[in-house]
UniProtKB/TrEMBL annotation:
Residues 37-115 form the Mce/MlaD domain. InterPro entries: ABC_MlaD, Mce/MlaD, MlaD_Phospholipid_Transporter. Keywords: Membrane, Transmembrane, Transmembrane helix. The chain crosses the membrane at residues 12-30. This is Outer membrane lipid asymmetry maintenance protein MlaD.
Length: 155
């Protein structure tokens, strides 16, 4: 084969590999590149352990949105999270946001518990009723400590 033809074949093979790699990147990270349509509400948590940009927001166990931003508020020392909710889902103004985990080793997500208010949250409003992440390690330490105190109290 002539050197020019061989060089051209290598160039085409390299271009095909790069195109396939780009396709896999777009397919794998497609949700991360696209901005979800909807409106944002805020929630300030005392602890957001396990929550990051892209974390699921669920309502009745169904994914309805994602966390679009998490930052520390230097005035309150709370973690301010911005949640993107689809336009078709209207949340009552007295809804609650709780950080939950999927089992012992699962990841964290934010669970929205809708309230009963006739008024709905508007874009940019804040969910006032929040519950931060519960540390499984601290719960286990409390349990072990209570068991040790019970053993000391017995004669």
């Amino acid at each position: 084969m002539a050197p020019a033809v061989e060089h051209r074949a290598e160039l085409l093979a390299g271009a095909a590999v790069l195109a396939a790699a780009a396709g896999f990147l777009i397919w794998g990270f497609g949700d991360g590149f696209a901005r979800e349509p909807g409106y944002e509400v805020r929630a300030s948590f005392p602890d957001v352990d396990g929550i990051a940009v892209g974390t699921e927001v669920r309502l009745a166990g169904v994914r309805v949105g994602r966390v679009s931003d998490v930052q520390l508020n230097p005035q309150t020392y709370m973690a301010d999270a911005r949640l993107t909710i689809p336009e078709g889902i209207a949340l009552p103004s007295d809804s609650a946001a709780l950080i939950q985990t999927d089992g012992l080793l699962g990841g964290a997500y934010i669970l929205i518990q809708p309230g009963g208010s006739p008024e709905n949250l508007a874009p940019g409003d804040e969910i006032e009723d929040v519950q931060g992440a519960v540390s499984l390690l601290s719960l286990m330490m409390k349990f072990v400590d209570s068991q040790a105190q019970d053993e000391e109290a017995q004669p």
